[in-house]
Specification:
Helix content is 42%, strand content 11%. The chain is of the alpha/beta class and 264 residues long. Strands 4-3-5-6 form a four-stranded mixed beta sheet. Strands 1-2 form a two-stranded parallel ribbon.
Length: 264
């Protein structure tokens, strides 16, 4: 636990730390109101975002955000609490996800179509379980893409600390990190960056990632849920004490060797 009371397994809560350092670590709507008062977050429809208890007016979740700026947030609920914090941390990317959901909802309502398509599945995957992986050493990303977990997490352990950083985006993943479990896996978007990028302040890194991800989402990228790269989070140094033993990475159920076709 940090001095402010929030956990930090392997530093994976770092993207939220500027916010969590300002409030008590508890899923409190009043605390979210304080934070949002200093962050002018807007939807793509121009509505200022607020975090309010769920309404019972029949309006669906995404449409309410689009038309009113109201993000349904259950009191005393960690899942919704982390969702709000991600809105405040990655405001542009979250706004684009909302806009794409609303667009997809309209398309799904077209006569002759049934069920929701891959686009909404992909957005939900990333919104719930996404992670942005940034590395200044392309060979580390190559190992991740190749499911070379032993080499990535153990043999290149020191390089990971210097040249790779993970920024959790998914609010469900943040909730799961309160009690990490075997097999906890995030869905990764991978970026290369310069060594100078890693020396930037955290706030500048988050702004850059938010702009980059939101631009890609607005351009229609990341529409295939199978295209995200699985990242077993408990393999990262510091997330669990078990990873201090190289034999830990012999667990092929958790550290799977790969897939025969492109998919999650």
């Amino acid at each position: 636990m940090s001095q402010r009371g929030f956990p930090s397994p392997g530093g994976l809560f770092a993207p939220l730390s500027p916010l969590l350092e300002r409030i008590a670590f508890a899923p409190d709507l009043a605390a979210l109101a304080v934070l949002s008062s200093t962050h002018r977050v807007q939807t793509r429809s121009g509505r200022r975002v607020s975090f309010l208890p769920p309404a019972t007016d029949g309006l669906d979740y995404e449409t309410r955000i689009w038309t009113r700026g109201e993000v349904a947030t259950r009191p005393d609920n960690w899942h919704d609490f982390f969702n709000a914090l991600v809105w405040l941390t990655f405001p542009h990317a979250k706004a684009v996800l909302n806009a794409r959901h609303v667009e997809a909802l309209a398309a799904d309502a077209t006569p002759g179509r049934s069920g929701r398509g891959h686009d909404r599945d992909a957005m939900t995957h990333f919104d719930e379980c996404g992670v942005i992986v940034v590395a200044s050493d392309p060979s580390l990303l190559a190992l991740l893409r190749g499911f070379q977990w032993q080499e990535l997490f153990w043999e290149r352990r020191l390089d990971l600390g210097r040249s790779l950083r993970c920024f959790v985006f998914g609010h469900a993943t943040y909730e799961q990190l309160l009690q990490p479990f075997r097999g906890l896996t995030a869905k990764g978007v991978l970026y290369e960056a310069t060594e100078d990028w890693f020396r930037r302040p955290l706030a500048a890194q988050l702004t850059d990632l938010d702009q980059r991800l939101s631009s890609e989402l607005a351009a229609g990228d990341h529409r295939d849920p199978r295209a995200f790269h699985p990242l077993p989070l408990l393999g990262l140094p510091g997330v669990t004490p078990d990873s201090e033993n190289p034999a830990y990475y012999a667990d092929r159920w958790q550290f799977r060797p790969g897939r025969s076709r492109r998919g999650v």
